[in-house]
Amino acid sequence: MKTERASIKNQFKGLYSEVERILFRLDPMGINFEDNTDEYDPEVDIILPRLKTANTELEVLDIIHEEFCRWFDSELVGNKNNPIYREIAKEVWSAWIKFSRPLA
């Protein structure tokens, strides 16, 4: 997994740390204990490659919610229309646009 993570970090450069910060700051699963900043790395590892298929913020919302349901209990994750997931999707979409279309 370390080799895969290094490859993903290299491929996505600053976007990796940006999405990691977004998830850690908004902390949808309540696992931010201030010093465990890599807690959402497994989710970032899966979310970033999937962003290539996203064409809208709503598609990013679907991707994020699907991955959280995959990594955590879906009842604990809750509804994708929860404002926290919408904010995550909004911020990740914005970061993705800047990364994938730097001159747009």
How many strand elements?
A: 0
The percent of residues in helical segments reads: 55-70%
- The H-and-E topology, N to C, reads as HHHHHH
Gyration radius over CA? 13 Å
| Strand proportion | under 5%
Cα end-to-end separation: 34 Å
Q: Looking at the structure, what is the overall shape?
A: globular
Structural features, described:
The protein is an all-alpha fold and 104 residues long. It has one domain (2-100). 68% of the residues lie in helices and 0% in strands. It contains six helices and no strands. Helix 3 runs antiparallel to helix 4 (57-71) and helix 4 crosses helix 6 (83-100). The longest helix is centred in the C-terminal third of the chain and has 18 residues, at 83-100. The model has no long low-confidence stretch (mean pLDDT 90).
Short description:
68% of the residues lie in helices and 0% in strands.
Summarize the topology.
Layout: H1 2-12, H2 14-26, H3 41-50, H4 57-71, H5 74-77, H6 83-100
InterPro entries: Apc36109-like_dom_sf
Search tags:
single chain, 104 residues, mainly alpha, 6 helices, 68% helix, globular
